[in-house]
TrEMBL record, chain A:
<dbReference type="GO" id="GO:0005938">
    <property type="term" value="C:cell cortex"/>
</dbReference>
<dbReference type="GO" id="GO:0005869">
    <property type="term" value="C:dynactin complex"/>
</dbReference>
<dbReference type="Pfam" id="PF05502">
    <property type="entry name" value="Dynactin_p62"/>
</dbReference>
<keyword id="KW-0007">Acetylation</keyword>
<dbReference type="GO" id="GO:0005813">
    <property type="term" value="C:centrosome"/>
</dbReference>
<dbReference type="GO" id="GO:0001725">
    <property type="term" value="C:stress fiber"/>
</dbReference>
<keyword id="KW-0963">Cytoplasm</keyword>
<keyword id="KW-0597">Phosphoprotein</keyword>
<comment type="similarity">
    <text>Belongs to the dynactin subunit 4 family.</text>
</comment>
UniProtKB/TrEMBL annotation, chain B:
<dbReference type="GO" id="GO:0005856">
    <property type="term" value="C:cytoskeleton"/>
</dbReference>
<dbReference type="InterPro" id="IPR004000">
    <property type="entry name" value="Actin"/>
</dbReference>
<comment type="function">
    <text>Part of the dynactin complex that activates the molecular motor dynein for ultra-processive transport along microtubules.</text>
</comment>
<dbReference type="InterPro" id="IPR043129">
    <property type="entry name" value="ATPase_NBD"/>
</dbReference>
<keyword id="KW-0963">Cytoplasm</keyword>
<protein>
    <recommendedName>
        <fullName>Actin-related protein 10</fullName>
    </recommendedName>
</protein>
<dbReference type="Pfam" id="PF00022">
    <property type="entry name" value="Actin"/>
</dbReference>
<keyword id="KW-0206">Cytoskeleton</keyword>
<comment type="similarity">
    <text>Belongs to the actin family.</text>
</comment>
């Protein structure tokens, strides 16, 4: 029966937007809503950034500035491995006395995997170990920035026009010739067919409807429209006859790693800074509480908050909490809408089962008194500390080759230990127990003839 | 009031710009000069070797929804590293994108990731925007098809669209056929094996094969190309094929080497320019679109050709295209219809596969109007649909919710881990 502990055998039903069935190990339990949550019905958020090679945490503002790349680590442009900095000694003339030479350290980047070095692309050796390597700039940056400024000016104009239109509607005085209807029509069609009504989803039109000739602003940013060329450079003649040196030609993947340049020749492949990774935190969509929040430190794998379902919900009738828990098993009714997968009828014990609390010291305490629960030997097979084994009868319904699947509902009581402290006027009332019901599916394996 | 507006627009975070192509997806932030990442539009399911293409129009909604959800999850948390809830989204799309795909994509963004707003931007219009001109004939040579759409004074001339399914996908298919027929593979145990034996064993081989044309193949110029076509179809009977380029030994993985025959290298791309029975080729699309445009727009359009798309980056493509257009315009079909004979090509400030993305990034940086032109989450929740150019029954936003007035909802909670 150890096979019942396999992850896919026991599935719990999660009531979210979609009904999802998944093993308990992948589920979270929101103790404010008292419901199971799966990865699909929580919202994921970026928690912190860190570099995968130097494991340095980076604050979000800095990450945004550096475009989510580490300042110190580089990736090999050929094989995407992390580059290491190597040092050599080169003779260099002393600044005071040109005739004497002394050994100076020069640093270069090298890949331990594919033997690429920064000297292959012509990058000069640097005299500092880190911080000397720069990525090349995009040559079109200036033009693009100018374009953005120009369009921003047009956008401002459009906004002013739109606001002015709205204000114009509210003016109290109106020429008597205009009736309400006419105003409406004029607004719709009147102010020029060039300023069309902007509907989202309609093809984006007419930023050009506002030309810069309506000179209200003092400062106008004029932009030169791009010039089209008559001729395009043809392929070089030796392209037809020259044998290709395949290592010299970059592969598609290498090219696409550098979207700004996409060089065709391997001698232009420059290393890029290493991309960061993130730690994710999860949040319940309904009550907006955090379900899982990792530690800030990249080297730590612990969590500040971790409401994993295994710690809160009953797991194959092992009681994870420290209180005594009462469990009732109820078979699924006929026509239960959630009962779609079962291929067998199951008879579950009708009596309530009692599970002892989890006691961490019990393993070590050999003289522990045996708890006396009166167990019906027909129902309970064995009991050990907080575990219980019980019998169920399964009657397969179909003569199929598939697995036998049974489903039933587990109803158990749950005490929310993290509930907010109530005011003491109510007296020392113990925390109330909530009864939770989970729909469980067990896959028992194929029928042996 | 201006002070408040300044604060509102200054505090808004930069929008996310995504160009979801059939082969590659370009993603990044508005206002930047290039996409942060160009990644294949595929997801990898655990346990399966073959990756699944995300952009498929024929699968059922459930599967498409889960594929898109996984892909966009990876985009946000592996590549862009930002919270989806904070930033508006600009999606560059083709105008021929099926409504079903669009609606599923919108649903993923709004329901699963709860983005504040979404804007669908047509790729051809965005290409014009990246140049600073108002009119141009834009040709997008992509993976599934080549689509031509003229844009005049920032308005796409929709009736004049032209398309052919000649793109990266067709080239791969042709190349696969030729390789299987003619080429041999050497491995350490055997030499001269034919290719199908290896494809049968290892489906990943196809993936590697699809990368071959980029490194080894090219497009010949007009004269040479016409001679190759003649030799193939043997029209003259005595046509001789020009000397082929030398063979290439292409390593497939550590053990196997594929011998690519020389003639394949320059002839596989000819299919883009071979005219089929309807005399359509990639070059004729441009002229057909011009003929459909109003007469007064034709000169402006023909002198402002813009070529975007990954397939346009093949070596020799642009030169050949211009030469073919100039050749075709002398044919009787076009000579009488088109008075304009001058054709000029633009070079946008980005590589052709990122030009549409760049236009979207420029537009996304205009925070003043991005809000008013996007479909906000509230509008979507109330109407349940996204407006489409082909569907006239969507209610205008003014009657539902005034999207332009308020700034987008920033994170609702008092505490925030991100500035």
């Amino acid at each position: 029966m150890a096979s019942l502990l396999q992850p896919d055998r026991v599935l719990y039903l999660v009531h979210g937007e979609k009904k999802i069935r998944s093993p308990l190990s992948t589920l979270y339990f929101c103790r404010y809503c008292s419901e199971l949550r799966s990865l699909e019905c929580v919202s994921h958020e970026v928690d912190s950034h860190y570099c995968p090679s130097c494991l340095e945490n980076m604050p979000s503002a800095e990450a945004k500035l550096k475009k989510n790349r580490c300042a110190n680590c580089f990736d090999c442009p050929c094989c995407m491995h992390t580059l290491s900095t190597r040092a050599t000694n080169i003779p260099a003339p002393l600044p005071d006395d040109p005739s004497k030479t002394t050994m100076k350290k020069a640093y270069y980047l090298a890949c331990g995997f594919c033997r690429w070095t920064s000297r292959d692309v012509g990058m000069a050796d640097k005299s500092v170990a880190s911080g000397g390597w720069q990525e090349p700039d995009n040559p079109h940056t200036q033009r693009i920035n100018k374009l953005i400024e120009y369009y921003q000016q047009l956008a401002q104009r459009e906004k002013l026009e739109r606001d002015r239109k709205k204000l114009a509607r509210r003016r109290p005085y109106m020429p008597l010739a205009f009736s309400q209807h006419t105003i409406h029509v004029v607004e719709k069609y009147g102010l020029g067919t060039r300023l069309q009504r902007q509907r989202p989803g309609a093809p984006i039109t007419s930023l050009a409807g506002l030309s810069l000739k309506e000179g209200e602003d003092q400062k106008e940013i004029n932009i030169e429209p791009a010039q089209a060329l008559d001729e395009v450079e043809p392929l070089p003649e030796d392209c037809y006859t020259r044998p290709i040196n395949l290592p010299e030609v970059t592969s598609l993947r290498q090219r696409l790693l550098q979207p700004d340049f996409q060089p065709a020749g391997a001698s232009q492949l420059h290393p890029k800074h290493k991309h960061l990774l993130i730690k994710r935190s999860l949040r319940c969509r309904k009550c907006e509480h955090n379900l899982s929040k990792p530690e800030f430190n990249p080297t730590s794998i612990k969590f500040k908050i971790q409401l994993v379902a295994e710690c809160q919900v009953l797991l194959t009738l092992t009681n994870p909490v420290e209180n005594i828990t009462h469990v009732t098993l109820v078979g699924c009714e006929e026509g239960d809408p959630e009962d779609i997968n079962s291929t067998a009828k199951v008879m579950v014990p009708t009596k309530e089962l009692v599970l002892a609390g989890k006691d961490a010291a019990a393993d070590y305490d050999e003289l522990a008194e045996p708890q006396d629960f009166q167990d019906d030997p027909d129902v309970v097979a064995f009991r050990k500390s907080n575990k219980i084994g019980f019998f169920i009868k399964v009657v397969p319904q179909r003569e199929e080759d598939g697995d036998v699947t049974v489903s039933f509902k587990i109803r158990h009581d749950f005490r929310n230990l993290a509930a907010p402290i109530r005011p003491s006027e109510e007296g020392d009332a113990p925390t109330e127990a909530i009864w939770l019901t989970h729909h469980v599916e067990l896959s028992l394996g194929p029928i042996i003839a | 009031m201006p002070l408040f507006e300044g604060l509102g627009s200054g505090g808004e975070k930069t929008a996310v710009v995504i160009d979801l192509g059939a082969a590659y997806t370009k993603c990044g932030f508005a206002g930047e000069t290039g996409p942060r990442f160009i990644i294949p539009s595929e997801i990898q399911k655990p346990g399966q070797q073959q990756s699944i293409k995300v952009v498929q129009y024929n699968i059922n909604t459930e599967e498409l929804y889960s594929n898109l959800k996984e892909f966009i999850h990876m985009l946000y948390f592996r590549h862009l590293l930002v919270n989806p809830r904070d930033r508006r989204v600009v999606i560059i799309e083709s105008i021929l994108c099926p409504s079903h795909f669009r609606e599923t994509l919108t649903k993923v963004f709004f329901k699963q990731f709860e983005v504040p707003s979404v804007l669908f931007a047509p790729s051809h219009l965005m290409a014009i925007m990246s140049l600073g001109i108002n009119s141009g004939l834009v040709m997008d040579c992509g993976y599934t098809e080549t689509l031509v759409l003229p844009v005049y004074e920032c308005i796409p001339i929709l009736p004049a669209w032209e398309a052919l399914p000649l793109g990266g996908k067709a080239i791969h298919k042709e190349l696969d056929g030729l390789l299987v027929e003619q080429c041999t593979v050497d491995s350490d145990s055997s030499t001269g094996q034919s290719l199908p034996t290896y494809i049968h064993i290892d489906p990943l081989m196809l993936f590697v094969l699809s990368r071959c044309p980029v490194r080894t193949c090219f497009i010949s110029d007009l004269q040479r190309g016409l001679k190759i076509q003649e030799a193939k179809f043997n029209l003259g009977g005595t046509a001789e094929r020009p000397t082929p380029p030398p063979d290439v030994d292409y390593p497939l993985d550590g053990e196997k080497i594929l011998h690519i025959k020389g003639p394949i290298r320059d002839s596989v791309m000819e299919m883009l320019f071979e005219q089929d029975n309807e005399e359509k080729s990639v070059a004729s699309l441009v002229l057909d679109a011009l003929v459909k445009c109003p007469i007064d727009t034709r000169k402006a359009l023909s002198e402002n050709l813009v070529i975007i798309g990954g397939t346009a980056m093949l070596p020799g493509f642009l030169h050949r295209l211009l030469a073919e257009i100039r050749l075709l315009v002398e044919k009787p079909k076009y000579r009488d219809a088109l008075a304009t004979k001058s054709f000029r090509l633009h070079s946008p400030p980005a590589k052709p596969n990122c030009t549409a993305w760049l236009g979207g990034a420029i537009f996304g940086a205009l925070q003043d109007i991005l809000g008013s032109r996007s479909v906000s989450r509230d509008y979507y929740n109330q109407t349940g649909r996204i407006p489409d150019w082909c569907c006239l029954s969507s209610p205008p936003p003014e009657s539902v919710y005034d999207a332009g007035k308020t700034p987008p909802p920033l994170m609702k909670r008092a505490f925030s881990t991100e500035k």
